[in-house]
Design goal:
Radius of gyration: 15 Å
Helix content: 25-40%
Number of helices: 6
Strand content: 15-25%
Shape: globular
Low-confidence stretches: none
Mean pLDDT: 92
Number of strands: 7
Order of helices and strands: HEHEHEHEHEHEE
Amino acid sequence: MINLNHAVQFQHNLWQDALAKAHCIVDATVGNGHDFLYLANHCAPHTALFGFDIQLAAIKATQERMKECSRRDISWQLSLGDHADFLGPDTPLDYPIDLAVFNLGYLPSGDHSLMTKADTTIRALQGALSHLTPQGMITVVAYPGTPEGAAEEAAVLEYITGLPQRDYDVSTWRPLNQRNQPPTLYILRGR
């Protein structure tokens, strides 16, 4: 059954099409590694997965979680640093991206003062879009429940709303009857 009240879980349904044929997947904010493990377990053989996070605790948590993945027909790499540094204009990532995943905000079990920021998220999105394959997908889960999260979501929304329709389909999904400003899912797909 599709979970209709949880943006992070709902996006898994959207990923299925991309996962079946992806050669390169980026998790721009690995957090505790749940999405990274999901991507690793569901991607096509010979896929390269790249994961980034600014917190060492997130990298370590994801490394630990990946012990649950028994796949040997994929490659994966985790890197400590800001997603804008890996996906920005001078990116070391030199692969066309089939699927990129952004889960904004802070590491739930980590330091809540370390949050993704609007300016670096926009730069990372710009970089991901510049590497996106035709029909490639980017999902962004934004958390407007804090002032910083609301500002970041507003900046992301402003940026993606301005993307040219001839190049991208841009959509949003959000639970409407949930309390406490639930996360919003943004979906970008190349045309």
